[in-house]
Write a structure and sequence with these properties.
This protein is of the alpha+beta class. The protein contains two helices and nine strands. A hairpin with a 2-residue loop joins strand 4 and strand 5. This is AT4g02370 protein.
Amino acid sequence: MSRLPILIASCLFLSSLTAAVVTAAESDTPTAYSLLQSYNFPVGILPKGVVAYDLDTTTGKFHAYFNDSCSFNLVGSYQLNYKSTISGYISENKLKKLTGVKVKVLFLWLNIVEVIRNGDEMEFSVGITSANFAIQEFLESPQCGCGFECKDSKLDMIERIPFLSSS
């Protein structure tokens, strides 16, 4: 009969230890944004609001998840749309076979299929054409709905090069 309190105390200790290990493991997991940086990409190629992601480190296959789709306009430029799940393959300086990210060029929605970092430039490809942008334009993540024009955004104006150059 005297073993019951010890058993209860042991169960409580083990459950609190398990909770502490799970919390520590979760806090050690890098965010999607810090993961991008580990592959030499700026955080701003991904809008704020990623709620989860998964990555197969052997193949580079990833998925990033938002609560909902995410759209915003860039100042004097393009409209972007991220589906609630985006995926592709990541490696150092390269995102390929992207799905779930579109850009509106003139009146057409085109899938962004590849992003390559080349020094201080980012090249975004829609397959038939690509455009280069300075990496400084991606140091901060845009917000769904308002992009970089949000009241809490540190960047007031982003000038873009037209997405009409051929690759």
